[in-house]
Write a structure and sequence with these properties.
Strand content: under 5%
Distance between the termini: 32 Å
Mean pLDDT: 92
Oligomer: single chain
Order of helices and strands: HHHHH
Largest sheet: none
Radius of gyration: 11 Å
Number of helices: 5
Length: about 80
């Protein structure tokens, strides 16, 4: 697989269009995080929280550049 694309893209609501983000904004996130190589997607809050939870689904309203800490996002994911 091309390592310039986030390995979590298939299940990410930003990438799949399942988030509440408008299509144009979604493309910006994809360009800035999902398709920009490991140095970028590994800074995505969704990616980091998913890694911390062992792959648990992250709430759809969490953006890659969320102001929430990883711990806060993990707490939301765990419900």
């Amino acid at each position: 697989m091309d390592n310039s694309v986030c390995p979590k893209f298939q299940k990410c609501p930003i990438f799949t269009g399942e988030s509440f983000v408008l299509e144009g904004s979604s493309q910006v996130y994809k360009d800035l995080y999902c398709n920009a190589g490991p140095e970028k997607y590994e800074s995505c809050k969704r990616y980091l929280a998913s890694e911390k939870t062992g792959g648990m689904p992250i709430p759809k309203n969490i953006m890659p550049n969320s102001e929430l800490s990883i711990e806060e996002i993990v707490k939301k994911a765990k419900g």
